[in-house]
Amino acid sequence: MNIQPKIIYSPKYDIRFFGIEKLHPFDSRKYSRTWEKLITEFGSQLLKNITTQPQKPASQSELLTVHNDYYLNLLKSSQYVAQALELPPLAIVPNWIQNQFVLTPMLWATKGTIIAGEEALKNGIAINLSGGYHHASKERGEGFCIYSDIAISIALLQKSNKIKKGEKVIVIDLDAHQGNGLERIFHNDPDVLIFDMYNQDIYPQDIWARESINYDIPLHLGTQDEQYLSLLKEKLPSFLNQASEVKIAFYNAGTDIYESDPLGGLKISENGVLERDKFVFKNLTEANIPWVMVLSGGYTQQSYKLIANSISYLLHQCFINS
Ligand SMILES: [Zn+2]
Questions:
Q1: Active site annotation includes 135
Q2: d(CA 298, ligand 1 centre) in Å
Q3: How would you write the chain as a 3-class SS string?
Q4: Which of 59, 64, 93, 169 sits a CA distance of 20 to 30 A from 225?
Q5: What proportion of the chain, given as a percentage, has pLDDT over 90?
Q6: Which structural domains are found in the chain, ordered by start?
Q7: Near ion ligand 1, which residues have CB within 5 Å?
Q8: What is the pLDDT of residues 125-138, one digit of tens each?
Q9: Active-site residue identified among 24, 134, 135, 177
């Protein structure tokens, strides 16, 4: 495989909502901050050469490859959206404002993951600087996740026959939370294999969804680098060895495993996050599997630095050392 990593990014990813950061421990600008940090390091010329910018948000018909009309109608209710975003005060905000400042950026990010799926198949590696809404399922939004960007990307690749029947897709979900939305969508789907390593002591604790995890690695509150990395190094290679005819992998690289994260409940250092990503990158690339990375959770003011560290490592591997 001739590997030419692509970055997918739009300034429209940022959630521009006056005061949302006071309602949720969320850095609503982590996407553009990551981008700006990479520009500082690599210069705008290199970044622009390898970046694809979505030209429009995900369309209704793209959403309908996974979600249904019933659910998309629910999103016209301010109360419903506020609940799915876990921001109760937003229930009194008119739906058009929710749309403009929160849902529309998520639609742009969803388009980014769709493009990342196509780019990974063409170029080997694609990183969308947002997305990873792994709690959203077909008919339900929850945990700050509205659209199942990864499932939509997979459905569209299957629809266009870029992923053929019988070809496998793997999802490696290393966000601190169980990826219950994806697990619900792919329940009993033999073509999508899921590796999920997460803190079992926090939300969502979804027992039914858990049945569809192929490699289920629950952790406890306070898990530290040594245990985390040794489990990953033991389990991920055997997951990849067992999966055959894999067409593409989606890596949900949540940085909420970081020790300062207010939601993840794990104790992984900055270096531990980088070691995790390096290990995943190396294993996927050595297995010759095209892969997409999405950012998923990560709720500190330092989250963008952790993401940029990993992408910087990857770009150095591909462009500086080659
Ligand atoms: Zn998370």
A1: yes
A2: 7
A3: CCCCCEEECCHHHCCCCCCHHHHCCCCCCHHHHHHHHHHHHHCHHHHHHHEECCCCCCCHHHHCCCCCHHHHHHCCCHHHHHHHCCCHHHHHCCHHHHHHHHHHHHHHHHHHHHHHHHHHHHHCEEEECCCCCCCCECCECECCECCCHHHHHHHHHHHCCCCCCCCEEEEEECCCCCCHHHHHHCCCCCCEEEEEEEECCCCCCCHHHHCCCCEEEEECCCCEHHHHHHHHHHHHHHHHHHCCCEEEEEEECCCCCECCCCCCCCEECHHHHHHHHHHHHHHHHHCCCCEEEECCCCCCCCHHHHHHHHHHHHHHHHHHCC
A4: 169
A5: 84
A6: 55-320 (3.40.800.20)
A7: 175-177, 254, 256, 297
A8: 999 999 999 999 99
A9: 135
